[in-house]
Design goal:
The structure is a homotetramer of 358-residue chains. Helices cover 40% and strands 18% of the residues of chain A. The first copy, chain A, is α/β, with parallel strands linked by helices and 358 residues long. In chain A, the strands form two sheets. In chain A, strands 1, 2, 3, 4, 5, 6, 11 and 12 form an eight-stranded mixed beta sheet that branches. Chain A has a four-stranded parallel beta sheet with strand order 8-9-7-10, with helices on both faces. In chain A, a hairpin with a 2-residue loop joins strand 11 and strand 12. In chain A, 58% of the residues are buried.
C-alpha cells in the first residue's frame, strides 16, 4: 500500500488543482494500492490531523478549476516551533500525524514560506516532495512556477482595459500588481500591457525621474501615461533605510498601498490627474491559463514518477523546458529576484520603458 | 451640404466608438455631401472650437475599440453658465462655435450630466440628437444604455475570479462595483457572479444584518461570503441624514471608499478576515461586449435616420427591444434607479441573496 | 412533501445549470419538505425512470458551469408515440414514471421540440413548468431565451479573430454560425463582429448579389470581406423549391455544410480566395455569459414561485424585461423567426450590411 | 542615415505587430536618422517595390493588435527562381529593390518557408535579420516562436467549451488543431484542455488503438472522449507509404480534413456518435496573449540591437529564457518536430493520455 499525504499551503493560485490532478493520475496509472490523505487548509490540516481520504475520482475534472480543493492557509515558518494556544508544538504534531497515518510521503504545493517548512519536515526525517506554486515566480532552482503566467495574463488584461480609458481622458493611470518582494509579474505584465513606466522592488525609483517621463510624454504629444507598480516597489530614499526603519515607516503610511502614495506624489510633481487600479486577489483567481495547466500537469506527473521511484527530498523544477528535481535543501529560503541587469530589463529599456531610475 | 458636429462627454465607456460608427455609416450610406466635425474632449471641444474634420474612413474599423476616438472630459452642468478663467460664458461659446461652423446638428453621446447640458443647448435653439451612453444604465426613457452590459461582464468576471480564491481561504470578500447613485451594475454583476450579499444605494443596509448573513453561512458549513457593493451604497443610519450632513460625513471618511469601511465593520462584527477588490476603471475599459456593440450600432443607425429626416431634440432610446426616440426635455435631469420592489430584486431575494436590510 | 421532477432536453447550451439552481434555490428558500428527482439525459430518463435523488447542495456552485448536470438527449416529438424496440409507448411510460413517483410537477428545460412534448404531457394531465432554453432564441412567447447571448458572444469572438487574419490576407472569410431554421444568432453576431454580409434563413440570398458586394468592396479599397452565414441560410432559387425537394437536394449536397457550398460559388463568381470557419459546438459550450446567468436565474426563481403557488401548464417567459408566465398551449410548436422588416434588420442595412438579397 | 526594409511573410499570426513595434522602438530610441520601408504583403512587396515609408508613430499602439499592419502573403520558396508571368526573376527583383532603395538591411518576420528565402537573400549578399514567427513553434534554433502560445490558448479554449457539451451528451468530440507537419500546438492544447487522446504527425496512430481507448473509457463510466488531432496526423499504415503515394492518397480523400475521416472511422469502430470542431483560422487571429507580447517585444528589441551593431545574417532566437542570435544558415530549411521520446510526451502518457499508438 502506498499512503500519500497531500496539502496546499500559502496564498492560493491558479493550477493548484491541475498539479494535484497530475500527481494522482500519474501514480494511479501505475499502482492500484494507493491511499490519498488530503489535508485541509495547508499545514493546519497536518498539525491537527484534519484530512479526508480521497480517490483518483476526486481529482478528475479539476484541471481547469481555480483555487484548491484542499483549501489553504498561511502558517508562517517563524511560528512553526512556537506552541499553539493549547501548548502544542506544531512540528511535533505534524510528525505525529505523519507517523500515525503511516504515510509513505507528503506532497506539498507551495511557495517560499511553504518550502522552508517542507525542508524542515525533511530534516525531521519525513519523505517530502514539493511542487513550485506561486504567482510570484520567485522560487530558487526552477525557471518557472505555476500561477505566474495566469497572474501575468490577468494583470495584463487589467492594463489593456485601462489603456482605452487612459487614452480617452489624458490621465496618469497607476496599476498596482501583486509582488511584495519581487517584480517578475509586474515586469512581464508591464511589458505585455505596454506600460510606459514599470516600478519593481529590485530597481528603486526616484519620483523626480517618474515626473520627468510623464512630462516628456506630454511634450511629445502623448497626454497619458501608464505606470505599472509592484506592491513592494521602493523609492531610492527608502531603499537606503535599514530594514526595520523601513518597516516602521510602512506601518505609519496613511495609504492602503504604494499606488495611493505614488498617486499623491505624482499629482504634486506634475499637473496630471492620477487614477488607481488595484486588481488585487483577482490575480490569483479563476481558471489557470493554458501555459500553467501544461506546466502544472507536467510537474505533477514528474512528482508521481519520483514517488514511484521513492526519490524524496526534492522540489520538482523546470529547467530549459524539461522537468527535473532539485534538492529541497538547495531551494528552501532562497528568493529568485529580478536581476536588474538581465536581458529582459535591458530589452524593456531599449524600447523606451522607464524603470523610474534614470 | 450636411454639417454634423459630434462629441462624447462624461466618463468614457465601451461602445462609444461603435455608436459613432453607426451614426456615420448610417448617414454616409444615404448622402455624399456630409461634413463631420469631431469635437475634442467633450463639450470642451465645442466651447473652444477644438475639432478635427473627419471622414467616414475615420470611423471604419473602430467597432471593437474601447474608449472614444474623440476623447472626453467631464464638464459639470452646474458650471456651464459660470464663466471660465478668461471670462468666457461656456454656453454662449458653444452656440458661437455651432453657428460659426454652420452646423446642421450636434450628435452628443453621454450620460446624465451630459443630457442636462444637451437639453440646455436644445433650449438655446441648437439641433441636438443624443445617444444613451453610460455603464450605469440610469438614463430615464430607455430600457438600456450602452456600456452597461460590458461593465456588468467585467464586474462579473472579477467576482468569478474572487470566488475561487474565496473558497480556498474561508474569507469574506468585498467587491466594490461602479455606481455612485444607482445599483444596476452591482445588482446584475452580483447575481451573475453568485454574490451572497448585494448592497446598492437604493436599498440601505444594516451592518448587523450583514454580519448575521455571514455567520449564518458559517453555521451552514459555507465558510466564505461574497459581498458585492456599489460605490454609493449607504447604511440605514446614514440614509436618515440630510444630504448635506451625509456629504460632510463622506468627506471625513478615513477610507478611500465604502469597501474599506465595510471591511472594518465586518471584521469588528464577525471573526472573519475580509479582503477587498476594486476593479475600478477597468469596468469602463476594453472592447465592448457583443451586446453593447449591437445596441450601440442600432441606436447609432437610428440617430442617422433622425438626422436624415431632420428630426431633432431627441435622445435615441430602446424600448421593448425596438429603437425609438424620446424628447430630450423628458429625459434631462431624471435618474432611473433600481426600484426596490421590482421583479429582479424579488427574484434575487427568492434565491437567497441578501440586500443587507432584513 | 413537494416532489419535483426535473429534466433538460434537446441540444445543451449555457446556463442550464444556472436555471436549475434558480428553481431549486427558490423553492428551498421557502420549503424544507422537498424531494428533487433529476431525470438523466432528458425525456429518456423520464421514460425509463432513470433518475437520481438530488438535494439543494447538488445545485450549489453550478451557476457558472456550462452543460447540464442532468445530461440531455434529443428525443424527437414525432417519435414519442412510436413504440421503442421493446414495444414501450414512451408517452405512457413517462406518465407511469410521473405517477409512480407521485410527483407534484415536472420542471422541463428545453427548446422548440422539447416544448411540444412538454405540452403533450400537460394535455395528458401532468403538471408541467418549462424554462426557455435555446441558443436560437426562437421560442414563441418570450423575448429572450437563455443560451442565446452566450452563443452570440462566442460567434462574435470568432468573427473578431477572423477579422485580423482577414485584413492581413485580402481574402473572403465565411463564418458559419449555428441556426438551422432561424437567424437570430447570426444576425446579432454578424452585427457585433462587423460582418459585411449576413445570410439568414429568413432572407434568401442571391449569389450574384453577394459577388457584387465583394467586388464593390475591392473597388473601394477594402480587399477583404467577412460573411456570416447561418447554417440554414437558403438561396432565392432553393427557397422556391418545395420543402421535400429542397430536403432531397440538401441530402445530395457534396459539402458538409452551407459554408463550403458558398465558398465554391464565391470563388467561381469572384477572383477571391475564400476561407471557412465553423465554430460549431463551441457555440453551446463553456461558462454562460453574465447576461445569461442573470436571465436564467430570474426565470428559474420565477418557476419556483409558480410551483409554490401550484400554477402549472406554463412556460416562464421574459417580456419587456419582466419575468412572466405564458400558457404552454400558446407556445408549443411555434417558431419565432427574424422578421425581415424588423427594426434591427433595417438598422443593419442602414450601416451598409448586405443580406445578399439586393 | 539608416534605411531599414521590413516585411512579414507566410501565414499571419499574433504578435507580428508587437515584434515590429519592438524593432522600431528599439532603433528609434538610439538613432534619429532612420528611414523605414514597409513592404506590402510579404516578399511580394519587395519583388514589386510596393512599399510605404513608415515612421515610429505607425508602430505606436499596435502592441495588442492581431494580424500585421504590413499585410502578408505566401511566396513559396520553390517558385522564387521561377519567373513570374512577365518573365521577372523574383530573386533578382528583390535584390534590385534592395539596392535601388539603398537599404542597410531587411527585417523579415516569418516561419519556415520565409526563412529559406531569407537565407537565400543573405547568400545573395543582402543584410538580413529575421524574427521567429509561427504558431507552429517548428523553427530550428529557438526554443519558442511568437504566435505559438496564443494559438495554444485559442485551441485550449475551444477544447474547454467542447468539454461541457461533451459531458452533457456522451459523445466523442474531435477537435482539429492547426499543424500540418508538427504537433506542438496540438500537444500543448491537448494537455491544457484535458484531451483523452492526442494525435500528432510525429506519432502515427492506429484506429483500433483509438477505439480501444474510447471503449475503455465507456466501461470505466466515462461516456465521452475528447480527441485533439493535428491537421497533419497520420495513421501507422499511411506512415509506411512513400511520400508521393501518401500525397496522392490525400488528394483523393473525400473529406475536407483528417477530423472528418477519423469521425467516420470511429463511428465504424465504436457505437459512439462523433462531433467535429475545427477552430481553423481563429487560431491565428485576435490579440496576442501576454506571453507572446513579451516574447515578440524582446526579440524585436534584440533585433534592433543587432541592427545598431550591424550584425547581420541572423535569426533572433530564445534559448533558456534569454534572447540570442543564430546564424540564418544554421536555421533555414530545418524543422523542429516533437520528439516522441521527450519528457512532455512521457509526462502526458503518465497521466493517462493516449497517443493512439499503444
Amino acid at each position: 500500500m502506498l499512503r500519500i499525504g497531500m496539502l496546499t499551503s500559502g496564498g492560493d493560485c491558479q493550477a493548484l488543482n491541475a498539479a494535484m490532478r497530475g500527481v494522482v493520475k500519474g501514480i494511479c496509472s501505475k499502482r492500484d494500492d494507493v491511499e490519498i490523505y488530503g489535508f485541509k487548509d495547508g499545514y493546519k490540516g497536518l498539525i491537527y490531523a484534519d484530512f479526508s481520504m480521497l480517490t483518483s475520482k476526486d481529482f478528475s475534472g479539476i484541471l481547469t478549476r481555480g483555487g484548491t480543493i484542499l483549501g489553504t492557509s498561511r502558517q508562517p515558518f517563524k511560528l512553526m516551533r512556537v506552541p499553539d494556544k493549547d501548548g502544542l508544538d506544531k512540528v511535533e504534531a505534524m510528525k505525529h500525524t505523519y507517523h500515525k497515518l503511516n504515510l509513505n510521503c507528503l506532497v506539498i504545493l507551495g511557495g517560499n514560506g511553504t518550502h522552508k517548512t517542507a525542508n524542515m519536515l525533511r530534516e525531521e526525517g519525513l519523505n517530502v516532495i514539493t511542487l513550485p506554486k506561486t504567482i510570484d515566480n520567485d522560487l530558487w532552482g526552477t525557471e518557472m512556477t505555476f500561477g505566474f503566467q495566469s497572474a501575468v495574463d490577468i494583470a495584463t488584461d487589467t492594463i489593456d482595459r485601462i489603456h482605452t480609458t487612459a487614452t480617452s481622458h489624458s490621465r496618469v493611470f497607476i496599476i498596482e500588481v501583486m509582488g511584495h518582494k519581487v517584480g517578475h509579474v509586474t515586469l512581464h505584465a508591464g511589458i505585455a500591457g505596454g506600460a510606459d513606466i514599470i516600478l519593481i522592488p529590485e530597481i528603486p525609483y526616484d519620483i523626480k525621474s517618474i515626473a520627468k517621463v510623464i512630462e516628456g510624454r506630454s511634450k511629445a504629444g502623448k497626454p497619458f501615461t501608464i505606470l505599472a507598480v509592484a506592491e513592494g516597489a521602493i523609492s531610492k530614499e527608502d531603499a537606503k533605510l535599514k530594514k526595520k526603519e523601513y518597516k516602521e515607516k510602512l506601518e505609519k503610511r496613511k495609504y492602503p498601498s504604494i499606488a495611493y502614495e505614488l498617486a499623491e506624489q505624482i499629482e504634486k510633481e506634475t499637473d496630471k490627474e492620477v487614477r488607481i487600479t488595484v486588481p488585487g486577489h483577482t490575480q490569483r483567481g479563476g481558471s489557470p491559463c493554458a501555459y500553467d495547466r501544461v506546466f502544472a500537469t507536467r510537474v505533477g506527473a514528474k512528482a508521481a514518477e519520483l514517488i514511484l521511484k521513492e526519490q524524496y527530498g526534492y522540489m520538482v523544477a523546470m529547467k530549459n523546458g524539461e522537468t527535473t528535481k532539485v534538492p529541497l535543501a538547495d531551494v528552501a529560503g532562497k528568493l529568485k529576484t529580478v536581476d536588474p541587469k538581465c536581458s529582459i530589463i535591458k530589452e524593456a529599456r531599449m524600447i523606451g520603458i522607464s524603470f523610474g531610475d534614470e
